[in-house]
Amino acid sequence: MKQSIKSIISTACLLGLLFSFNPATAATTPQIETLFNWAENTFPDLFPDHQITQTVDPWVFRHYPATGIYAGIRNDEVYVLGGPWGTENPTFIDTLPSLLAQIQGSGGNGSVPACSDTATIPEGMVITQSGNVVNITTNGQCLVVSNPENTNFCEPPAPSQPTGISILSTNTVSSFQTTGITLNLPSNFPFNPLDSFTQNTSTCIINAQEALTSQVVNSNICLDITEQLSQLSGIPGVTITPPVTITTVTSSTNQRVADCFATSAAFITDIFSGESWVNVNGSFVPASNVGSDF
Are residues 54 and 145 in the same domain? Predict the structure, then answer.
């Protein structure tokens, strides 16, 4: 009995210390989720078993019952309590912006179950997930990438066996801005080099996992495409003033469909077999043929 009472008192003291009054408003953010997820992946002995993020003004925190550790954030300051840090007072670790900079600088990222591999994303990009919503951001930075037209930085994980589920993902561009380029192209110019960034597109996934049905992916990214568009500088009507950047805000929503080949998707992929098809004038052609036969 004494031990039980002591445990209850100890827990109450921990909560009292952790949730001491402060007028700030507590709310979780993609940046906070990134930090907590990174801590779980990097120090599983201290932060074992993925825990949900909780909020009690002014704290945003995760509690790890297996180790008795609390990881909390208040006013952009990161604290830990319990385990090797003791239970007397929360231990200040660093500020949230400073820790995020260290994580991004080391190539780290939060665990994102909806994405097959976040280790390969460009340095400086942050991908986080809360429930069925995935957020992708470059935090105001403009990143240099080798293939700026491929903005699908969150590839869904392949299932262990065919699921028979087909998901149509529609990507809507709500904002598009450029710097460093002015276009005044002649009417007979065959294409606008920026069109691919402004168009709403759709892709269809065969053998998708059930979780993709209700998934939403929001992105706010800036890409430096100076190298890709520098070759246009000699074309009449095109003025290049480096750096050339594009900033897009998009939202991708999913819906279950009976047959990907009965949709108007621009691209179809079977994530179990690895096969893919491209929509060419209304007909789906194996992607391996595109560029050789067309």
Answer: no
